[in-house]
Design a protein that fits this description.
Blueprint: H1 3-21, E1 26-27, E2 31-33, E3 42-49, E4 54-61, H2 63-74, H3 83-106, E5 112-113, E6 117-120, E7 134-141, E8 144-152
Antiparallel strand pairs: 1-7, 2-7, 3-4, 3-5, 3-6, 4-8, 7-8
Helix pairs in contact: 1-3, 2-3
């Protein structure tokens, strides 16, 4: 897995949370993921590909995390994983990968990105298209949790 891609995704995530969401996201310890079960209740996923690298990233939010993001960004009080939560998850995914694309482009690495796909429900599956090792990086924003999954070959 290319460290440039990981760093670009992490830099983008921190910028999005600091500037757009207004929440400090504290990363935990990354671990290899050995299943397809989501850790959150709503997940956005995008493919990131170029001639040499093929992969995907997913960001999976707990209900508490996406609710706090909705409150900070939209002023909405979410009661459930509804259309607003799903749309916001897709938009957060798009901002995260778009920011990483900009960072990587400035370093001479271009890639194509897909439209975000959003999945939801407790225990939903996150199926990365490629056979690389999925790494999951947990984040905490006080008591709310979310997870960044990265899978590249």
């Amino acid at each position: 897995m290319d460290i440039m891609i990981i760093n670009a995704l992490l830099d983008s995530l921190m910028k999005v949370f600091n500037t757009m969401v207004g929440i400090k996201a504290v990363p935990g310890v990354p671990v290899a993921k050995d299943d397809e079960i989501s850790r959150g209740e709503v997940t956005g996923m995008m493919l990131m590909e170029n001639d040499k690298t093929h992969g995907s990233m997913a960001i999976s939010f707990s209900k508490a995390a996406i609710s706090r993001i909705a409150k900070n960004m939209l002023g909405d009080d979410l009661q459930d994983i509804d259309d607003t939560a799903r749309d916001l998850t897709g938009e957060m995914t798009n901002m995260l990968v778009g920011g990483a694309k900009k960072i990587l482009s400035e370093q001479g690495m271009d890639f194509n990105m897909s439209t975000p796909a959003v999945f939801y429900g407790k225990g939903h599956q996150i199926q990365h298209k490629f056979n690389g090792q999925t790494v999951i990086l947990p984040f905490n924003t006080n008591s709310e949790e979310f997870y960044l999954e990265i899978n590249f070959v």
